[in-house]
Design brief:
By secondary structure, the chain is mainly alpha-helical. The protein has one domain. The protein contains 16 helices and four strands. A two-stranded antiparallel sheet has the order 1-4. α8 runs antiparallel to α11 and α9 (269-282) crosses α11. The longest helix is centred in the N-terminal third of the chain and has 44 residues, at 13-56.
């Protein structure tokens, strides 16, 4: 049954040429993405090298001056962005680190405007998520509906075939075609991914992404076969399936984020910064001024070293106050960012409820997570930068703290390159298993959609059995 249906689909050359056109468009998108990612990789490497050169060229200066000079840390380029760019064009590509502040990532690629890419809105992943379901519908909506298909069904049933076998054969044929299209999309994307020096973990992630897309397309295949069996008219089946496709792949994925943002609004950047600065100065309770807390630290040190003035301390109290200020502001920023990320998690949960209407809402975060082009990957990068920033600034503050200026000098000077050579940026890399665990809810939704669609296909088989 499946082989016969595949032959019939093969004879429908219009679908073949349409699928080929989609592959060519995806190939063009992947090719431009590969060139853009290679350019970004070279650019960010050059930025990192220049920032390191400028940092080391500061020479012998006051360490706290170096802390305020700061430096930029560019984001890594994700190899699988060639297949699924996700949110990478909408997230900042570098973070400027300095004392007393956690700056947001800046220089978003999307700010390049029209010069970004002619195919920036099209990708192999988007083709599988939006265009491939349409091809599935066009290939399968008339497999069991319409006069010609119904006559063929009656002949096959009269020859002794069961309705379950007929429905199953058509479903297998349609799923096989969808699987071939998925493999073709992966094949088109593979050279561009390998060009970005993708490691084994990226190849494993790509395989998992492909599995998610196949499961997604199986759901559409089963829904298409079910509609074809449940509706006697091919036109009715087509209109119903196209309406579902438009809602599921185009409408809901665009409306859902706006609804989630309305339900769980995020603070504006000025409001966020004002709240942080207020807490830095006055403490969590609003009644614990920073100056009073620093005075308590001073009193403790004077008592510890049994001296009456900070000038008599064996350590430089300026460094102590710098350490205290950095620790205080960092803890405050971290608290506020955790609250902000909690809002994002609630938005994500609100967004996931729309998966009841659209499996695309579950597939997109699944694909982006394994491509490392989602907000979670960006958050790993930002947290890694913050960890580096804090270690770097406190290393400079420790140098000030442990070295009092020579007599007659206001500041202790140090060679910044030698002092900070051991403090390096170590990007955070989430394990593949951790990504999979975080994406289990979306996987469960995709499985539920596939199971629901298969049940509908089973119902259509029962209906056909009764009509025979």
């Amino acid at each position: 049954m499946a082989a016969t249906q595949l032959k019939l689909m093969w004879r429908e050359r219009r679908l073949f040429w349409l699928a080929l056109a989609v592959l060519l468009l995806a190939g063009a998108s992947v090719a431009t993405s590969a060139g853009r990612l290679s350019a970004q990789s070279r650019e960010r490497l050059a930025v990192a090298e220049e920032e390191a050169r400028l940092w080391d060229s500061q020479g012998v200066i006051d360490p706290h001056d170096a802390a305020h000079t700061g430096r930029a840390v560019p984001a890594p380029v994700r190899p699988l962005a060639a297949f699924d760019p996700g949110l990478s064009d909408f997230l900042g590509s570098s973070v400027f680190i300095e004392a007393h502040a956690q700056n947001p990532a800046r220089h978003r690629p999307i700010e390049a405007g029209a010069a970004l890419s002619r195919f920036s809105g099209f990708s192999a992943a988007w083709a599988l998520q939006a265009v491939a379901p349409l091809l599935v519908i066009l290939a399968g909506f008339a497999t069991m509906s319409g006069e010609v298909a119904r006559d063929r069904l009656r002949h096959e049933l009269g020859a002794g075939a069961s309705a379950a076998a007929l429905v199953g054969g058509r479903l297998i044929a349609l799923a096989a075609a969808a699987g071939l299209l998925t493999l073709a999309m992966i094949g088109v994307s593979l050279p561009a991914i390998l060009l970005q020096d993708a490691a084994l973990i990226e190849m494993m992630a790509l395989a998992v992404m492909a599995g998610g897309h196949v499961l997604y397309l199986v759901a559409f295949c089963a829904l298409t076969v079910a509609a074809s069996g449940l509706f006697a008219s091919a036109r009715t089946a087509l209109v119903t399936l196209l309406a579902f496709w438009a809602v599921a792949t185009l409408l809901v994925p665009r409306i859902a984020p706006a609804v989630a943002e309305a339900l769980e609004p995020t603070p504006s950047a000025p409001a966020f910064r004002a709240a942080v600065l207020e807490e830095v100065e006055n403490g969590v309770s609003g009644h614990d001024p920073a100056d009073a807390r620093l005075d308590a630290v001073k009193a403790g040190l004077l008592a510890l070293y049994e001296v009456g003035d900070v000038a008599d301390l064996p350590i430089n109290f300026r460094g102590v106050s710098l350490e205290f200020g950095e620790k205080n502001s960092t803890e405050t920023y971290n608290r506020h960012f955790q609250r902000l990320y909690a809002v994002y998690r609630r938005q994500e949960a609100a967004l996931r409820t729309f998966a009841v209407l659209s499996p695309t809402v579950a597939l997109q975060p699944w694909s982006r997570a394994f491509a490392r082009t989602d907000f979670g990957a960006h958050l790993d990068y930002v947290r890694g930068v913050e960890d580096y920033r804090y270690r770097l600034i406190q290393t400079l503050n420790l140098e000030v703290k442990m070295n009092k200026p020579p007599p007659g000098e206001r500041y202790h000077l140090a060679d910044i390159a030698s002092l900070t050579r051991s403090v390096v940026f170590a990007p955070h890399q989430q394990r593949l298993v951790d990504v999979a665990v975080a994406q289990l809810p979306n996987l469960a939704i995709l499985v539920a959609w596939a199971a629901f669609a298969l049940c509908l296909a089973g119902v259509s088989a029962l209906r056909i059995e009764r009509l025979s």
